[in-house]
Specification:
This protein is mainly beta. The protein is built from three helices and 14 strands.
């Protein structure tokens, strides 16, 4: 009986929303690298608030030197990249407070990065935030909640199954 409960828990093959906001199709993103899915399949968010949360439990794989992007790898090896805003690399780390370290274990919903929204908006930076599965060729992916308002750590955005 206990194996049944553990099996059900481990079968949650989903990546959740890292923010509260509207989930949009990547084709709506102004940066062609994301819009044309050159980095992988995913979605983007027009979000509220000032914190990006982990969309799954796993390990912080990569943090960009300029703090504008962070990647988490879950227990199944799914690599989730969150790129905060468009052209935010130009800020050279200003306006971002990374709350975790590379190789740190994180839980679903754990805060990853806090942004200074007013500073970034003063620079006329588009805060549309893509979330990409960078190794999606290894998985069958289904995208959920496009054009919907989503809730961080609750709304399933991407369901995956290993190929």
């Amino acid at each position: 009986m206990f194996k049944l409960f553990n099996k059900a828990k481990n079968e949650d093959k989903s990546i959740k929303a890292p923010v509260d906001g509207k989930c949009i199709d990547l084709s709506e993103v102004t940066d062609k690298v994301f819009a044309k899915r050159m980095m992988g399949e995913g979605v983007a968010f027009v979000f509220e608030g000032d914190t990006i949360y982990s969309p799954c439990s796993g390990t912080v794989d990569t943090i960009a030197k300029t703090s504008h992007a962070i990647a988490v790898r879950n227990k199944d090896g799914v690599e989730v990249l969150i790129h905060i805003g468009m052209n935010t690399v130009s800020l050279k780390g200003q306006g971002f407070d990374v709350l975790v370290k590379e190789n740190q274990k994180v839980k679903l919903g754990e805060p990853l990065v806090k942004i200074d929204r007013s500073f970034i908006e003063e620079k006329s930076i588009d805060l549309t935030t893509p979330m990409i599965i960078t190794n999606g060729d290894n998985y069958n992916l289904s995208i959920n909640n496009i054009s919907e308002f989503v809730t961080k750590s609750e709304s399933e955005i991407i369901h995956y199954e290993k190929k």
